[in-house]
Amino acid sequence: MHALDIDWDHPADPLPGPRLDHVRAYVATAGADGHLWHGVPTLLLTTLDRTTGRTVRTPLIYGEDADRLILVAAAYGAPDHPSWYRNLTAHPEVRLQVGAAAFKATARTATPPERETYWEAMTALWPAFDDYQAAAAPRELPLVIVER
Predict the structure, then answer these.
(1) Do 136 and 77 form a contact (C-beta atoms < 8 A)?
(2) SS3 of 140, please?
(3) Rounded mean pLDDT of 84-102?
(4) Average confidence score pLDDT of the chain
(5) At a CB cut-off of 8 Å and minimum separation 6, what does 134 contact?
(6) Which of 88, 119, 126, 136 has the greatest CB tally within 10 Å of its CB?
(7) Is 29 helix (H, G, I), strand (E, B) or coil?
């Protein structure tokens, strides 16, 4: 698939339920409703589906360090990595919406030292990440670094 063939402007959204409601509110209000979710910042990550070639949008909690955004591929502690993570490992070019700002970015898995550095900050932001890691064992939850 060529970059020109990718429709980044019309991604598929989550199935009906709370995540879809979150995405719709976020998009409709340019993040005014949805950027803060349960007191933590969230963004909308759009990836290229590695099997269908369609774009897919996912709401995720994020942390920040300078110009980097940090994501946790938790999947609520499932034994397998979430689809969005497998998508970006196959195609690291992504699109983000953070509040009202929408932009292109590149995503990659954090190195082991980066993971060690950011894990504590991410669990301080959302303590359930520790529970998800315990549930996912022996799978290590990847941290993802996203940069413009």
Answers:
(1) yes
(2) coil
(3) 97
(4) 95
(5) 77
(6) 88
(7) coil
